[in-house]
Amino acid sequence: MNAKDDKLASDLALAVVRLARHLRGRRPTSTVSLTQLSALSTLSREGPMTPGAMAAQERVQPPSMTRVIASLADLGMVKRDPHPTDGRQVIVTLSELGREVITDEANAREAWLRSQLEKLEPDQLGTLRDAVEIMTHLVASTD
Predict the structure, then answer these.
(1) Is the pLDDT score of 82 beyond 90?
(2) What does pTM read for this prediction?
(3) Domains (ranges, CATH) in the chain?
């Protein structure tokens, strides 16, 4: 890599952080924290799982995930059921309320982003489509 590529890495990282910050800012009245929302999203995407599997998916320590799951259960956003084969484990499942929260959060983020995209020229939109494909590939190749 050369200096120009180093600057691209730095600029891209900063742009992604700023975009993420703007997307998070769409949720001023949210009933869940970003950590809780991430856990709900994992359950929505991956389906029911153990707390240990959720911790691995979220890249956090199991005790931290246990606290997140407990708070989400208290809010009625997840259900904890006995594991079918391991009595020491539970299976965490997204509740209907949890699904509604994920949908509401996504709708708020996407509405803001659509309003921003409407301000762009067609060639800029094409560049963004290409960038999304490239960024998706970058992330997928490291997971």
Answers:
(1) yes
(2) 0.74
(3) 3-140 (1.10.10.10)
